[in-house]
Amino acid sequence: MDKQLEDKIRKLVSKFHLLRTKDGSEEFDKIWKDLNAEIPLEERREAGRILSDEMRKVRENRKRTDVNVRTGMGELCDVLSLSYIAQHYFQKDRSWLAQRINGNIVNGKPSAFTESELEIFKFALNDIKNKLSETILNIK
């Protein structure tokens, strides 16, 4: 598949926001129809794969404002060192992590974890759990 066609497919994903309105949906349908006409029949499977990959990337980077981490953590925010987690697992500062945990409004938008950041946060908590378990076993 030629590079220009691949770029057009990747740009199509950035137009998904048009689907939120009726006029936008019509505009998106026209863009999709025009693009689909350009793709040779034998390359449509690969085009679908590229589109799928781009959509997956967008989903991974989308902010998960539906997840309330603060409520899920309860007292753990007081027990754990958010500075340690922020520095060692995200290479960020404590305020960055606290904003996401608390859902603070930053630059007019609610702050939230992306899908991949949420996975890193889960990994961090699990890693700390394992370190605590090892420490408990080592205390005699």
From TrEMBL:
It comes from the Bacteria. InterPro entries: DUF5053. It holds the Pfam family DUF5053. This is DUF5053 domain-containing protein.
